[in-house]
Amino acid sequence: MVMTQRVSIQGMIKELDENKVSRFQVVYKRYDKDELLDLRSQGYLAFLIEGLCFIYLKAVQDNSEFLVDVLVENSILGLEDSNSSNQMCAKVQKGSSIAFIEEEYFFNYLSIRPSFSEFLINYTNIQEEKLMKRLISLSYSGRRKKIISSLMELSENIGIGMGEWQRLPAGIENKFLLEYSNVDRTFFQKTMKELFRSKIVKFDAEGHIQLNHGQLQDEFRKIE
């Protein structure tokens, strides 16, 4: 049996793949188009190993749907859904890759790898905290506050540090930011123009959106 020393999502997948006894226990899929993924499908856990995945929450009370998270590589999909009364679904972006681990194999394996269990508990707690913070942001009544808080969350969660700037991954565009902020298009475009003029948001040479997290925090404090 092959065992990895340092626990990480990438290391977990590698170890589970190397020790599987059936090819059905670890299955890889690359997406050649955007595709919806049922996070409550039976039998497998999904691990995003490349690309982007957008997580939506549908409230059972009124069927309203909100974009609550964007996951990047080395993420586990849908763990926070197991403790939620609301339904979650995922939209996997074209070009992304997912490893599907058979649930029975995965949870049996945890019995001989307590470090995997500890990692999974910590990861789930972090994701649930992110979800609660996101729901608070969605509850703000002020539209500008929603936009600024949403940009701050993205900067913290998926931004890649470039000095004082946080670069968002390729594939994160204005139409996604609009949906994530959950405000009307006219107000969103007006606010984003102001943020670009103030050099709080900018595009880099490769077309990635960059966010100045410190200045976003300043803007948020002004609203409060």
What's the structural blueprint in terms of helices and strands?
Blueprint: H1 9-19, E1 26-30, E2 35-38, E3 44-50, E4 53-58, E5 65-71, E6 75-77, E7 87-92, E8 97-102, H2 103-110, H3 114-139, H4 143-158, E9 160-162, E10 165-167, H5 174-181, H6 185-197, E11 201-203, E12 209-212, H7 213-223
Antiparallel strand pairs: 1-8, 2-7, 3-6, 3-8, 4-5, 4-7, 9-10, 10-12, 11-12
Number of strands: 12
**Could you give the distance between the termini?**
56 Å
What's the tally of helices?
7
- Work out the radius of gyration: 19 Å
Structural class: alpha+beta
Q: Which oligomeric state applies? A: single chain
In order across it, which strands form the biggest sheet? 1-8-3-6
Instruction: Please state the average pLDDT score.
Output: 89
Element order: H for helix, E for strand = HEEEEEEEEHHHEEHHEEH
Low-confidence stretches: none
Principal-axes shape call: elongated
Query: Largest sheet, if any?
Result: 4 strands, antiparallel
Beta content: 25-35%
Level of helix content? Answer: 40-55%
Describe this structure in words.
Helix 3 (114-139) packs antiparallel against helix 4, helix 4 crosses helix 5 (174-181) and helix 4 runs antiparallel to helix 7 (213-223). The radius of gyration is 19 Å and the shape is elongated. It starts with 8 loop residues before the first helix and ends with a helix. It contains seven helices and twelve strands. Strands 1-8-3-6 form a four-stranded antiparallel beta sheet. A four-stranded antiparallel beta sheet has the order 2-7-4-5, with helices on one face. Helix content is 42%, strand content 25%. It has 224 residues and is an alpha+beta fold. Strand 9 (160-162) and strand 10 (165-167) form a beta hairpin. The chain has helices at residues 9-19, 103-110, 114-139, 143-158, 174-181, 185-197, 213-223, and strands at residues 26-30, 35-38, 44-50, 53-58, 65-71, 75-77, 87-92, 97-102, 160-162, 165-167, 201-203, 209-212.
